[in-house]
Amino acid sequence: MSGILYVKTITILRMEIMMQKGKKLLIGISIVVGVICIELSMYVIPFIEEVKEFELPMFVVGVILCIISIIFGIRYQKS
User: DSSP string of 26-74?
Assistant: First the structure.
């Protein structure tokens, strides 16, 4: 009986570790996407006439994404 309990415990711990890594990865990807949005809005979009009106919305989305990711990252570290 203890063998089954041992396997279940290891499985639960593996799943918890995978979820923690997934959260870290999601936060990291969100920060990278936010920074890319900001960079595109400052250095690429102003020079393309067809999408020039998306410069400000792209910047705002990038900043909001970075701020939310940093807040969740800080909250994740505390727990």
Answer: HHHHHHHHHHHHHHHHHHTGGG-GGGGGGHHHHHHHHHHHHHHHHHHHH
The torsion of the CA quartet 44, 47, 48, 49, rounded to 10 degrees, works out to: 150
Residue with tokens 């919305």: 57
Tokens of 27: 């936060």
Distance CA 60, CA 55 (A): 9
Residue 4 DSSP class: H
Report the predicted TM-score, pTM, of the whole model to 2 decimal places.
0.78
CA 27 – CA 75 distance, rounded (Å): 11
User: What would the pLDDT profile of 18-66 be if each residue is shown by its tens digit?
Assistant: 888 888 899 999 999 999 999 999 999 999 999 899 999 999 999 999 9
What CA–CA distance (Å, rounded) separates 78 from 70? 13
